[in-house]
Specification:
It comes from Pontibacter diazotrophicus. Pfam families: FtsX, MacB_PCD. Belongs to the ABC-4 integral membrane protein family. LolC/E subfamily. It is found in: Cell membrane. It is a single chain. By secondary structure, this protein is α+β, with helices and mostly antiparallel strands. The protein has two domains: 198 residues, no CATH class; 194 residues, no CATH class. 51% of the residues lie in helices and 20% in strands. The strands form two sheets. It has a six-stranded mixed barrel. A two-stranded antiparallel ribbon has the order 2-11. A hairpin with a 2-residue loop joins strand 6 and strand 7. Helix 2 runs antiparallel to helix 8 and helix 2 runs antiparallel to helix 11. The longest helix is centred in the first third of the chain and has 40 residues. The protein is elongated. The relative contact order is 0.19. The mean pLDDT is 89.
């Protein structure tokens, strides 16, 4: 039988507690409940945002991306490409040439990112499903077409149904500049606008997809490529395929999975989540100060009880544990209510989208929420640590109380 817990429970549920002690205990419970609920909700929102970032970029990014460690491009040949295609777990291999170029349309111009891709590129992503105007085909009836981001379309007023005005790309040639013929310093190629895509503003405002051969001719890349993008076969593990490719290709190539392609963005979300956790832990600590005050007052109120227990043979550890249990009851009941409320609010947000993002151009209408068991465990551990810290001093004071002065 756990005597300290039974006595602590009796003190907690006793109706004869002094009114002020009861009020402070209730305030402490409410503070812990509100703090823990807010912490779970905010952490779940950050989890949802992290998943949303992955979902947004999954339509654009490959499972694995091979780039050069030094320089922005590397040489390829048939043997090199076959080595990659024959690796276990590799389903689709796409060649990519990507660089900046000047784009003209009518009397407007802007610098865009030209991404030349091989014909199987759309087999490993969902960009073709993001086409909002025109078609996604880059080659049709032996004619080259460009797939333009919606932001680029707005900037240049591009019309896909106007077949008489092509897109004109300009890229500096690898020759000495001739001031008498400035136009000769640029490669100039025309291509028809075939479709408009809308994925995410970062891509919509700068990217134009073109056939690989068109990009190789414009940028004078030949057999050089800026990246090789890979779709992993169903059932294969990305990390295993990545490790095998890294071993096969060596240290001159960098192989990144989808998360590593956006390391800085995802790291920023994780850092913000960490600081939010620390901030709310401090708030929980401040709310738990009421536990310290209520326990201190309870020790004063129960001096006679403590003296009687000590005279009956209760050790200092037993008396100390009574008040540690009392603090734990206040904190854990408040935390139980708070975690339950936080879980309920997160479920309501997931189901009904109660809180809107407040932006008409947002990818999702409501704030994304994802609950993780790890967050509940971390919140519980934070409450345990804080409760122990604020309960130790009153509990020690009770254990050190003189029997003869209070009997």
């Amino acid at each position: 039988m756990n005597v300290p817990f039974l006595i602590a429970k009796r003190y907690f549920f006793s109706r004869k507690k002094r009114n002020i002690i009861s009020i402070i205990s209730n305030i402490a419970m409410i503070g812990v409940a509100v703090g823990s609920a807010a912490l779970i909700i905010v952490l779940s929102v950050f989890n949802g945002l992290e998943d949303l970032i992955r979902e947004i970029y999954s339509s654009f990014d490959p499972d694995l991306k091979i780039t050069a460690v030094e320089g922005k491009s590397f040489e390829t040949d048939t043997e090199f490409m076959n080595r990659i295609r024959q690796m276990p777990g590799v389903a689709v291999v796409s060649e990519v040439i990507e660089d900046n170029a000047l784009l003209r349309y009518n009397d407007r111009q802007m610098v865009v990112k030209v991404k030349g891709v091989s014909e199987n590129f759309f087999e490993q992503n969902e960009i073709d499903s993001s086409v909002v105007e025109g078609h996604s085909e880059l080659i049709r009836n032996d004619t080259y077409y460009a797939l333009v981001g919606r932001g680029v379309q707005y900037q240049l007023s591009i019309r896909t149904n106007n077949k008489f005005v092509p897109l004109q790309f300009l890229y500096p040639r690898n020759t000495r500049f001739n001031p008498l013929n400035p136009e000769g310093a640029f490669n100039v190629l025309d291509i028809a606008p075939g479709g408009i895509f809308a994925i995410e503003r970062q891509y919509d405002d700068s990217y134009v997809f073109v056939p690989l051969n068109f990009a190789a001719e414009l940028l004078e890349y030949g057999r050089r490529r800026t990246a090789i993008e890979i779709k992993v076969a169903d059932g294969a593990r990305v990390d295993q395929v990545k490790a095998a490719l890294q071993q096969e290709l060596g240290d001159s190539f960098r192989i990144q999975d989808s998360d590593e392609q956006h390391t800085s963005l995802l790291r920023a979300v994780k850092v913000e989540k960490l600081f939010v956790f620390i901030t709310f832990a401090f708030i929980l600590g401040i709310a738990s100060l009421n536990i310290f005050f209520s326990l201190s007052m309870l020790v004063i109120d129960k001096k006679k009880d403590i003296a009687i227990l000590a005279s009956m043979g209760a050790t200092a550890n037993t008396i100390r544990n009574i008040f540690l249990m009392e603090g734990a009851l206040v904190a854990f009941i408040g935390a139980a209510y708070g975690l339950s409320i936080g879980m309920l609010i997160c479920n309501l947000q997931q189901t009904f989208g109660l809180v809107s993002m407040g932006m008409s151009t947002s990818v999702v209408e409501a704030y994304p929420v994802k609950m993780e068991v790890r967050d509940f465990i971390l919140t519980g551990l934070a409450i345990v640590v804080i409760t122990l810290l604020v309960s130790v001093r009153p509990a020690r004071k009770a254990a050190a109380m003189s029997v003869t002065e209070n009997i």
